[in-house]
């Protein structure tokens, strides 16, 4: 394994945390936090199959997530079953199968992340793809947000909500793949959702909500990685617990300042 | 003769194998106000959603080329804690800061409302913000789906006052779903009556006769002005 410095890992973490925070900001407002969380578990069987075939597990995770994204998108439009039920049925099945077929030696780090496995090449690729995710999400952000507020309003000005939703789900798939090394398949959903949920607690405008979602994603990743290194624990739980601390802080602040 | 802004011919809509609209034909010219009336479940909102391209249909819907549509939906349910200001909401349609200020004042608000969260506004205020939204981009035609649904009478009257001002001031074409026949007689130049099929079409005074109203609403209705005596 090529050794990578902590500083480089932190740099990669900043980009992954930022992308996860921004992508999560839409997920929270679309009320698909639970769907999104379960969706991330699909990465596990993808990684397992790739490992069994001696391929890159990240590629396997990405392919599985893209298939799941297209599946959600398709069934949301055509099926009478609620998406939540679909997710409950298929994605938990995927998790169960993933746990069964993932080689035991790889299972823990697939579930909870291992920053030591990040190579320089992988790190650079993750940074580049995070920038792409941020840019594409920014470009579609107005259309995406309008679809969240009212499908009728979006369609009345010529926005194809279906197309925008598909692009968004593919961005989620990419973001989850990028974060798996840091927090693992089981906890990646939390890195996407919790920073945005924290930002929503204290934001009064869309601009501040986006910025705080990104900032909380970055802070969760950076502080979590430092804590993992400091205490010699898995990075996934450390990152997620940091983000939960931010959530509780903003929740208390909301109660205190707004009197809610 | 001027080309109509919208021409609908032999429109049929089916949803889940139920026929919702059957053989609807009408046209609307520039500057006209067309009211769509009918009982609950008559297909009025479905007609609007079909005109907007949200629902598949058979028949012909012909908009004049390059037409700009402003739409105000019946329901606009927004979470009170949605982190979205009025200005940001209007910007989502692509309005410039100057245009946003103009349209928000055209619906009777001061600039200060632009920085308020849209979710904390009253239903009447949200409805006016929606009208401002519809006006951003300088549309040729406005579609209003029961603009006063769910708001009190005073706010409702204000909304109709705005509509009338807009139509006169900007020579806008308006399509309006309304249950209020008083409003239809007062503001509409044409009316289309629906009960899944087309019951009438024409100027309100001619189209909405006693027989048509009885057929539409199932009871004998008579339109009259109320007089108050102190």
UniProtKB/TrEMBL annotation, chain A:
Q: Which SUPFAM superfamilies match?
A: ABC transporter involved in vitamin B12 uptake, BtuC (SSF81345)
Free-text function comment from the UniProt entry: Involved in the high-affinity zinc uptake transport system.
Supply the source organism's classification: Bacteria, Katanobacteria
Q: Which organism is it from?
A: candidate division WWE3 bacterium CG_4_9_14_0_2_um_filter_48_10
The protein's UniProt keywords, in alphabetical order, are: Cell membrane, Ion transport, Membrane, Transmembrane, Transmembrane helix, Transport, Zinc, Zinc transport
**Biological processes per GO annotation:** response to zinc ion; transmembrane transport; zinc ion transport
Protein known as: High-affinity zinc uptake system membrane protein ZnuB
Q: Which Pfam family, an example, fits this chain? A: ABC-3
What is a single cellular component term in the Gene Ontology annotation? ATP-binding cassette (ABC) transporter complex
Q: Which family does it belong to?
A: Belongs to the ABC-3 integral membrane protein family.
**Which PANTHER family does the entry link to?**
ABC-TRANSPORTER METAL-BINDING PROTEIN (PTHR30477), HIGH-AFFINITY ZINC UPTAKE SYSTEM MEMBRANE PROTEIN ZNUB (PTHR30477:SF23)
Q: Which domain of life is it from?
A: Bacteria
The UniProt transmembrane annotation reads 6-29, 59-75, 82-101, 121-140, 166-197, 209-231, 238-257
Q: Which InterPro entries match?
A: ABC_BtuC-like, ABC_TroCD
Per UniProt, subcellular location reads as: Cell membrane
What membrane topology is given?
Multi-pass membrane protein
